[in-house]
Write a structure and sequence with these properties.
The complex is a heterodimer of chains A (about 110) and B (about 110).
Chain A lengths: L2 E3 L4 E5 L4 E3 L2 E3 L5 E7 L6 E5 L10 E2 L10 E3 L8 E8 L7 E3 L3 E6 L1
Parallel strand pairs in A: 2-11
Antiparallel strand pairs in A: 1-4, 3-8, 5-6, 5-9, 7-8, 9-10, 9-11
Chain B lengths: L4 E3 L2 E4 L5 E6 L6 E7 L6 E7 L2 E5 L6 E5 L5 E5 L8 E8 L7 E2 L3 E5 L1
Parallel strand pairs in B: 2-11
Antiparallel strand pairs in B: 1-3, 3-8, 4-5, 4-9, 5-6, 7-8, 9-10, 9-11
Chain lengths: ~110, ~110
């Protein structure tokens, strides 16, 4: 079965430090990977998707098919990055069925 | 643009009862998906509606059913509620398949 694993429930870093939120997946086909973010008291929103190859709010993520990973990275954390981050996989043959990880809380301390 | 709107925001029901949750998609979107998010977990896919038909379904029992109306709005119905159905129910809309999902704020369902 398809699975998305986010091994850390909580990641706490100091402002200005690098951030890496880990995501590993299991899927036999060609998945589409996403990172969603939920700021305090806001709705879940798309941060980035691997096919776009964009950098959003300084975050990047590279799909590594060999390691089946899609880690989210930012070189210098800011306090406003504090939020819940979810990694999600869309099975290529399906439409809107996303498989989400359990999420990682990122806490950026001043 | 109000985005995806869901109602009600909170709901308390008793075991065995039935509940209906409602969702209006973002303007211009024609596809609606429903997700269940239990405490401490990521959202789990329930089903997707497009052109008023259920197109995909996750691993949820038949007690979970839905409907999509001609104006693209949608309802999620849950019959014979169990304590384990207590969760945040999220609606997401998109423009067809494969476009990014836009989520609503969710309906918090508590079953006592």
């Amino acid at each position: 079965a398809q699975r998305v694993t986010q091994p850390e429930k909580l990641l706490s870093v100091f402002k200005g430090a690098p951030v890496e939120l880990k995501c590993n997946y299991s899927y036999s086909g060609s998945p589409e990977l996403f990172w969603y973010v939920q700021y305090s008291r806001q709705r879940l929103q798309l941060l980035l998707r691997h096919i776009s190859r964009e950098s959003i709010k300084g975050f990047t993520a590279d799909l590594n098919k060999g390691e089946t990973s899609f880690h989210l990275k930012k070189p210098f954390a800011q306090e406003e990055d504090s939020a819940m981050y979810y990694c999600a996989l869309r099975e290529s043959e399906y439409g809107n069925k996303l498989v989400f990880g359990a999420g990682t809380i990122l806490r950026v301390k001043s | 643009d109000a985005g995806v709107t869901q109602s009600p925001t909170h709901l308390i029901k008793t075991r065995g009862q039935q509940v209906t949750l409602r969702c209006s998609p973002k303007s211009g979107h024609d596809t609606v998906s429903w997700y269940q998010q239990a405490l401490g977990q990521g959202p789990q896919f329930i089903f997707q509606y497009y052109e008023e038909e259920e197109r995909q379904r996750g691993n949820f029992p038949d007690r979970f059913s839905g409907h999509q109306f001609p104006n693209y709005s949608s309802e999620l119905n849950v019959n014979a509620l169990l304590l384990g159905d207590s969760a945040l129910y999220l609606c997401a809309s998109s423009s067809g398949n494969y476009s990014p999902l836009h989520f609503g704020n969710g309906t918090r369902l508590t079953v006592t």
